[in-house]
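ARCHIVE CARD
Drawer: 12
Card no.: 0347
Subject: one protein chain, sequence and derived structure
Cross-reference: see card 0346
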Amino acid sequence: MKTLLTVCLITLAALAVVLTLACGSGPETPAAGTDKLSILSPHTTDIRDNMLPLFRDWYRRKTGRSINVEWINQGGSSDNLRFIRSEFARTPQGIHVDLFWGGGISPHLTLKKEGLLQRTELDPAVVNAIPKEVSGIPIYDSELQWYGSCLSTFGILSHEMVRQYQKFPEIRTWEDLTDPAVKGWISVADPRHSGVGHVAFDIILQAYGWEKGWQVLNLLSANVKKFKISSKDVVKDLVSGDAAYTLVVDYYAWREVEDLGADKVKFVVPDGLSIVNPDCFSLLKGADNAAAAKLFMEYVLSPEGQQVWMLRKGVPGGPPQSSLYRLSLLPPVYDAVKGRTLITENPFQSAAFINYDLGLGERLWDVQNDLMGTFLVDAHDSLVSGWEAVIRGGRKPAAVAALCRMPVDQTEVEALALRWDDEKLRNEKINAWLQFARQRSQEAIRLSR
């Protein structure tokens, strides 16, 4: 992931951004007296369509000027990260994109480490109102290179009508999703493309520990019908009835609860097995419109902007088109919106989250993308075949252990992470892992006879 993309892919990415800019929100050519801002984000269009009009109004009140915002999306957050890296490889001084917004926190840590962000000093009154951390996770960078824009948790969304019709069990933990009864009824995003998918899997590894975590990931993935590219796609699967369960970030879940009703879909945050995570934005190196980007960040971080995340649509001070259902990073906002939001969770008053090692997650991001992608996605057919044989054989402990066996432990992965930009090493490991994945499935089949 840290290597240069091929010339063909770089060319296609450059073409994509040109087309996106031509079709982005706002006029193609800003009128005289109109400022500009470009935002690269994997966020859904409802965030764009609710936040940007409110920001434009705020900007006009604050500056007396209009602003044109260009919205660019290259896919999931991992895809956007790849795009940023490839563009900076081509033009190291800047890529004519001002702000990167979304993907949680890990992509921003990566960009900071690679020197692709710049220090962003916001209004001290804005920054001083933000707690430094929540559940042990920083909300903004101590060196002011990235800031959280809101908070999110991760959990399991179930389609209650499908679940009840199929007589499936209620799911309360990640491990519950390894039940053979739900095989073929789980939809999950490929962690190499979806930041939500990656973080959800990493939460499982850190919540259960390396060995047990990989057993849960392997068996959960063996129950997956098909991996999808983005977290938006897996929610579509669930809403359509093609899946009974999916791993989601909370705002996708609350949106469906509002649209379909709490009797139709249910969202559960596994108690003591999840995290609260800031969804961050950062100013890219060489940004053309740094002043406008800073004002955008100050608006989102203000009490006015933070209430937009939590309020129902149409409520005074809330989003005009659709509810966004994100958690505010300002504690006083929870009291201010009480009775006007569906959200019941207050992460500043909850002890139900794990002590997530953010540094570890960031250091291992690239190598674990390939480890997860190889064993759980690329080798999915052989994983499913092995799991079916293990189920038929009565789930003998030795067979389960063989199916879930991994060729590396956490210490070895941490060592590999230091060398993962070596393309030759990376390709050799991925090929070896793919062969190992197929062999372990055959061993599980043999032990199940």
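Annotation on reverse: The chain is about 50% helix and 15% strand. The chain has a mean pLDDT of 90.
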